Automatic annotation (TrEMBL):
The chain crosses the membrane at residues 21-39, 177-199. It comes from the Bacteria. InterPro entries: DGC-Regulatory_Protein (IPR052163), GGDEF_dom (IPR000160), Nucleotide_cyclase (IPR029787), Rev_trsase/Diguanyl_cyclase (IPR043128). This is GGDEF domain-containing protein. It comes from Paraburkholderia bengalensis. The lineage of its organism: Bacteria, Pseudomonadati, Pseudomonadota, Betaproteobacteria, Burkholderiales. Keywords: Membrane, Transmembrane, Transmembrane helix. Pfam families: GGDEF. Residues 245-377 form the GGDEF domain. PANTHER family: DIGUANYLATE CYCLASE DGCT-RELATED, GGDEF DOMAIN-CONTAINING PROTEIN.
Amino acid sequence: MKRTVTPHRPPSARWRPQPSAVGAVALACLVTGLLYVAVQVKALYADHFQQRYASLVLEAVARADNARLAASFARRAARAARPPGRAASSAASSADPNINANANANYQQALDQLKARVAELDALIGSSPIPAPRLPQNDATAASFDDLQHALAVTAEYWHARTDAISADVRRRTLRVASVLAVLTVVVAGALLAALVVFARRHRRLAGLTYEFRHAAQHDAMTGLPNRQQLLARLDQIAVSGAPGKCGLLYVDLDGFKQVNDTHGHSVGDAFLVAVAQRFRQSLRPGDLVARMGGDEFAALVLGFGSDTELAAIATRLMNCVGDADAQMGLGLVRASVGIATFPDRVADHRLLVAAADDAMYDVKRHGKNGYAFVSRPAPPA
């Protein structure tokens, strides 16, 4: 039976929006939205102008209708003022010389006022920003009062409808502008939030990288112990802070370690250094510092010790750590020489503490190795 093997496909990488892409999309949305808002605001200004114009037309219609009513009343008054026995005639009788002079003058003045109002209204409609139906061409005389009333009513109805339509359009546009502004607010807030998230993520990553770099700069890569730089920085801190009490530095060199590399290889030598470093760390107090100075050399900084006897006991423990690691790995080759310097009694300058302990360690090596020795105390002044 033939077996079908499904090829393994690596999982697809999770897509994450890039800050530049998010910013470009947000900027495009913002520009588009602002352009749309600008167009709508311009249309709102046009609607506002049309509303104001329609209000002016409706006011002109009202004035013309008032003038029509006044002319109609003046005509009735002129007819009522005729001498008795005169038969009623057409509207042309308004010019009959037998009609009362005052009533006739009032009627003629009302007709003139009506004609002026109708001409004003017609001119206003003719100047409308949007084409609108004009008034019928007629003379504002008594015979055309009914037709004029109908024309004014139709005109008022048209412009009231125009006002209602513009008001509805203003409401729709206002709602659109408010909706677009709300969307733009969400887009901008979302873009800012995304930028803050990206910034926080990158800041956290940068902080992690900074910590890693700082840790790598102050620690030995193989053993994980602090390096010479961190040890010297700790000595500077002790000197600057003026902490009371003494501190001791134990400089450790591994005797016979070169033979381990030559006989068993560097991998075994590296494993031995890691094992020794772990034992050194476990043998000291939490407040003390053990560092790898380079190669097969280590240093232990002891703070607040009581006496030289205590430092000697620590040196013995460090030597036993080397011997135990050698025995565990079955090498039988490595021991330790330890030089001890103390600040400020034996070494007055903390910057010379490492060199003094190193000199004491070499004194041990010159006298047979596998032991410890203190730096000589300075002679008292004469």
